[in-house]
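Page 42, continued from yesterday. The earlier attempt failed because a stray header line got pasted into the input along with the sequence. Redoing it now with the clean sequence only.
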Amino acid sequence: MNVAILGVGTVGCEVANTLIKNKQVISARAGVEITPVIGVVKNLDKNRNVNIPLSDDLNAVIARDDIDVFVELMGGIDEPYNIISKILKNKKPVVTANKAMLAYHRYKLQNLAGDTHFGYEASVAGGIPIIKVLREGLSANHIQKIVGIMNGTSNYILTNMMQKGFHFDEILKKAQELGYAEADPTFDIGGFDAAHKLLILASIAYGVHGDPEDILIEGIENITLDDIYFANEFEFVIKLICVAKRNGNNVELRVHPALIDKNNMIAKVDGVMNGVSVFGDVVGETMYYGPGAGGKATASAVISDLIDIATNSSRPMLGYKKSLEGVNLKLIDSNDIRTKYYFRLKVEDNIGVLAKITNIMSQNNLSIDTFLQKPKKEDEDVATLFFITHTSLERDVKKVFSILEKESYIKAKPFMIRIES
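This time it went through. Structure tokens are written below.
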């Protein structure tokens, strides 16, 4: 089986090199020899650690009759979508690791693919075979909930803030020096990378349509050591989590920092690792853990799709042939999310301030479960208050924050983290 690799960067090199290095075991599993015969690059002058022919003529490679499968590792959204569309129209199988493209174009690609194999295991959680888990291993289950840590950069930062007391800016800089974070880390720390992955999993689990703009996405950039202090006091950890949850005929999708009980399995996923918990109505909770990024982990997932193609292990791209539940499930508005909330408020340290805050909360359907005031240092002229609410509605929390922001006794922008049980 001849393979063309479109985009021979870190992952593309690992795919080619692993196919060559592990040729014997891959051939034994696939039943045929899988050979990388050409790689497409933009710059032929750049040195690459790979021993396959390279070309900068993408159209010529796509037109070759001797290519059996195309592996797309270019990155981007619209350009690779157009390229893959052209390949699928020629009835040639495709494997991709491109989560951003799938977040926007997965349903159009499914329609184009039809019975042509389209593999994308590498698009979510790197070396964790979570796509196969949902499409195959748990196919007898109604999926009740998915909770995942699916961005290693954010998880590395939060782990070091929790365990070693680093300030956010300090550990972000270290992550960049170690290669865990990009020079512009917005995509990772802002939650967008994780959101793309969540949308892909939600499509498999629930068949819901939606773009990143349709769901709640918040990043970790505003978390401070005050929040770390509170989390440690109450036996929580802070993680950037992805949540997909079914409520009746509605599906809730959200990506945000969350306070999680330290004893929860997902809370133990530290450093650059990823973890995904899936709750099925038959099997209960199952947990998947492993490296979520990097050339080797991603290449492992890409090659697993190539082996599926070689063995003709084909099924619909998103894993179902008709409506999963007999109804079309719909995304709920993020304002209708219900959960518990943690608030951090910087206020004047005066008599009556706490009463004013709790009065505003009670007038807007928020009730307090836990309250803590952090001891002041001698040089501080404001008090730091922490609250945990009972289960509340997102729109009520937003209304309370809009009121508090205008009050003169509030001395910094109020901050909130949702609590995931």
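Notes: Residues 337-419 form a domain with the Alpha-Beta Plaits fold (CATH 3.30.70.260).
Reminder to self: strip header lines before submitting.
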